[in-house]
Amino acid sequence: GISISLGLGRPGITAAGWCAAWLCPEEFSDARVSVLLQESTGARAANAVAELKRALVFDSASAYRWANFGEALFNAGNMQPARYSFLRAFDAGPGNPAILMRAANFWFSAGDFRKMMQCGSAILQNPRLAGYYTATFLTYARAGAPIEEILAQGIPPRRAAAQAFLRFLMEGTQSADAAAAWKWITERDFYDDPLTGDYLDFLLRNREGGRAAEIWAYLNRAGMPDYRRTNWIYDGSFETAPRPSPLDWHIETGGNVEAARVAGGAQDGRWALELTFDGTNNLDYHGPWQQAVLAKGRWHAEAFLHILEAVTPMLV
User: Fold this and answer.
1) Cβ(161)–Cβ(123) under 8 Å?
2) What is the pTM of this model?
3) What pLDDT, in 10s, does the model give residues 68-111?
4) Which of 78, 101, 135, 220 has CB 3.0 to 4.6 Å from 73, enough for a Cys bridge?
5) CA 168 to CA 163: how far, in whole Å?
6) Torsion region of 279: left, alpha or beta (phi above 0 gives left; psi -120 to 50 gives alpha)
7) In sequence order, what DSSP letters do the residues of 28-83 get, joined into one string?
């Protein structure tokens, strides 16, 4: 067993009395604790551990005091009491991101990835701690744990955390891990249009266009059943408002051209794309575009153009 005795002294003793016994709370400022933690890695380790243990006398319920003590014990090679101290730190500060990150890093160093991800998951549970998400994911990445274990133990079933994790993975090139995270997200209906567009763009950048097109076709199978069957251009008749996807239309207005979807006058369906040119300059306009994933071979492209009005400017 582990025994850590914290004598609190007799009740009624004054602050001056504590200081006379070299137990002043002011002794353990952040600056001094930092020095003691540095000393715990060298020849003065025993003294540093003893001093940080003494600091616990003033506030044995403090998560910071337990984390400081545990870190010093770990630095000095006292693993078992260090584990106990970080368990106490976690219990005392279960919602404190600074304590949770220190505990996660300790358990990483101790090789206990399950407890590491328990601390990380506690951070990811709270959307107000989004500023700590990347640091948590980096700790997971350093651990090298399998993606299945991270998704099962380290990512809570929350939309914000799940989306942040996939976006973290998409900053790298591990498409297999990103694919596993995407599958996990879709099974829980945590995806939305912006995330879908970002993931498809990630696949295209990593030369997985076929997979990107399959996902896009599957997600739009009800509204666009002909896509990837008889028509490899998505929504060729502009029937739906474009969404943020590289495989959907991007309709951009230029300096001398206005572009917009309009109802009526369509060759097929109800909607069409209307381009209005002001005619003041020669144009190099490439406004409407989408990416299409095609196999090698011969393809037939067809478009319908209806000129509503043409005005020839007068030369004076």
Assistant:
1) no
2) 0.81
3) 999 999 999 999 999 999 999 999 988 899 999 999 999 999 99
4) 78
5) 9
6) left
7) G-HHHHHHHHHHTTSTTHHHHHHHHHHHTTT-TT-HHHHHHHHHHHHHTT-HHHHH
